[in-house]
Design brief:
With about 325 residues, the chain is mainly beta. It has 7 helices and 18 strands. Strands 1, 13, 14, 15, 16, 17 and 18 form a 7-stranded antiparallel beta sheet that branches.
């Protein structure tokens, strides 16, 4: 039975809007600059995560799925997603505003791209004064008005915006217009999909004076035009987001010890957003296996660990802010 977590080499992605916070946040040294994204856990073709320590060092995430199957993923996840992995986990640092985007749902993405859609969530780690998150529509518009507003650069007048603060959470189902404003460092949990429709880019130009490509027509059919009173999440207790794709919880440790909730037959991803902790395995031994003996695994700020589905009883101890993710 699998009884240890996996740590992967992060894929650091430099982009024009990226900042300089991800490397120090993760405690790593690199000459790379303008790092906008750290892909902590990925099965996206071309960027599949690779184990970087322990006896399985050098194996990819897809290698692990092939080797361990339901032991790693859980029975239902394995049937539903193998040989892929259901979630993509990132840390994002926005030095400048990101483009305004929308993602298709599963039905539309399968029809157009033969892949899953993208529902995601953001949890804010750090924010600069005046930083904003853009999410959802604040006024009713028609698909035709949407196209007109993109054309005349007034689409931002219809999009809700929020002053962001550390600890804020935004749940972004497929179809919801959204953008990360400058000055935000956040964790992103999303379906494994790289399909994005760019709606608006503030009429910015590249070095040759050309505007970035927009996907106005494709986005038109993907947008949810429903107007809601509030797009910021207001979680009660530890549960930050729950949907058919993921369950995300925040665990605040103040020198104490707390159990990690395990509501699904699933792997558990643990991200450390602040401080450090010991994760203790208290899973009862299966018949014929050696007892767990309370093995402990260290995690510190900026790290992400993948615990297999066989490790169903975990406890965290230390002074830290943790996110736990299951599918």
């Amino acid at each position: 039975m699998l009884n240890q977590p996996f740590h992967f080499t992060p894929f650091l992605k430099s982009v024009i809007w990226g900042g300089e916070r991800i490397a120090p946040f993760k405690g790593i040294t690199t000459d790379q600059t303008q790092i906008g994204e750290s892909w902590e856990l990925s099965a996206v073709p071309g960027h599949v995560s690779v184990v970087d320590r322990g006896p399985y060092r050098g194996l990819t995430l897809t290698d692990l799925i092939e080797k361990f199957g339901p032991e790693l993923m859980g029975e239902e996840n394995y049937r539903r997603y193998a040989p892929s992995f259901p979630l993509l986990i990132k840390i994002i640092d926005a030095r400048a505003d990101l483009s305004v985007q929308v993602h298709p749902d599963d039905t539309l993405a399968q029809k157009r791209h033969n892949c899953p859609g993208k529902t995601e969530m953001w949890h804010l780690i750090d924010t600069d004064p005046g930083a904003k998150i853009y999410a959802g529509l604040k006024k009713q518009i028609t698909p035709e008005e949407y196209e007109a507003r993109v054309a005349d650069n007034t689409i931002m007048d219809a999009i809700a915006d929020y002053d962001s603060a550390p600890g804020d959470t935004f749940f972004l189902p497929a179809g919801r217009i959204h953008a990360i404003g400058a000055g935000n460092l956040l964790a992103e949990i999303q379906q494994t999909s790289d399909i994005t429709y760019r709606i608006y880019d503030y009429d910015r130009r590249d070095k040759d004076g050309n505007p970035r490509e927009l996907h106005t027509a494709q986005a038109k059919d993907a947008i949810d035009y429903t107007v809601y009173p509030d797009y910021r999440s207001h979680p009660e207790g530890s549960l930050l987001a729950e949907c058919q794709y993921f369950d995300v919880r925040r665990l605040q440790l103040t020198g104490d010890e707390k159990p990690i909730e395990h509501p699904r037959d699933s792997f558990t991803i643990i991200m450390c957003l602040d401080g450090s902790a010991e994760i203790i395995n208290t899973t009862p031994a299966a018949t014929g296996d050696a007892p767990s003996n309370g093995e402990t695994f260290h995690i510190t700020r900026g790290e992400t660990l993948l615990f297999p589905a066989t490790m169903t009883s975990l406890t965290a101890r230390g002074t830290a802010t943790l996110l736990t993710v299951q599918s």
